[in-house]
Amino acid sequence: MFPMDQSKSTTSTPILKFRDGIAVREFHEDDVSDSVQCLNEPEVRTFLRNRIPSPYTESDFKWWIDRCADQTNWIPTGPFEPDPQDSTIHRLPSHYAIVKDDRLIGAIGLEMKSDVYCRTGELGYWIARPQWGKGIMGSVAPAFVKWAFATFGILYRIEAEIFSGNDASRAVLKKSGMKFEGRHEGSIWKNGQILDGDFWGIVRTEKDDAQ
């Protein structure tokens, strides 16, 4: 894995590169067909929240890529500043495509929280069904967590919620350095089933570059 210079992010420059043509980069407009195909795979949707429309359409992807391109949704980079509204502060997106040979096969990102939780980001990701079992997310997620802490000084904590039974994600989060923090029993209603929500988290350490 080779982290790229985050100060020079463009739509064509990956923020992370791995072996076998795997990379993490910003979303492109021509990712639309791959995104629609992947997000309409029933198995992929099993552990995703329902805010992702079903069926997933080209219009849904257009809305998503516009949201990702909107710089008001980007996160300030560099050391933490209590007032990040300064227009001179450099910002980067927090949601990215996972690609193989520049074809979209998944996504990973952070959704920053607000109010007193404004230094916490929630990690989310998915990978196309044909790529399951290849260790891709097990490589991408830990590298992305490290990159996020090094890039976004405002970020003090990263957390994730997974549905009970999602053993693959449990392994990914462990590999990313996260700790299991507790279970909300019966908190999820998905596909006609009541599931538990398992919560994982990690906080910034002295080894992280920013802050």
What does it look like?
The protein has 211 residues and is of the alpha+beta class. The protein has one domain: 3-Layer(aba) Sandwich (Aminopeptidase), CATH 3.40.630.30. Helix content is 23%, strand content 31%. It has 5 helices and 11 strands. The chain has helices at residues 32-39, 42-45, 58-69, 136-151, 167-175, and strands at residues 2-3, 16-17, 22-25, 75-76, 91-92, 95-100, 103-112, 120-127, 157-163, 179-190, 193-203. The strands form 2 sheets. Strands 1-2-3-6-7-8-9-11-10 form a 9-stranded mixed β-sheet, sandwiched between helices. It has a two-stranded antiparallel ribbon with strand order 4-5. A hairpin with a 7-residue loop joins strand 7 and strand 8 (120-127). The longest helix has 16 residues, at 136-151. The protein is globular, with a radius of gyration of 17 Å. The two termini are 23 Å apart. The model is unreliable at 1-10 (pLDDT under 50).
Name of the CATH homologous superfamily: Gcn5-related N-acetyltransferase (GNAT)
Percent strand equals 25-35%
Elements, N to C (H/E): EEEHHHEEEEEHEHEE
- Share of helix, binned: 10-25%
CATH topology name, in short, is: Aminopeptidase
Low-pLDDT runs of 5+ residues are 1-10
Counted by DSSP, the helix tally is 5
CATH architecture group name: 3-Layer(aba) Sandwich
Major sheet attributes: 9 strands, mixed
- The average pLDDT score comes to 91
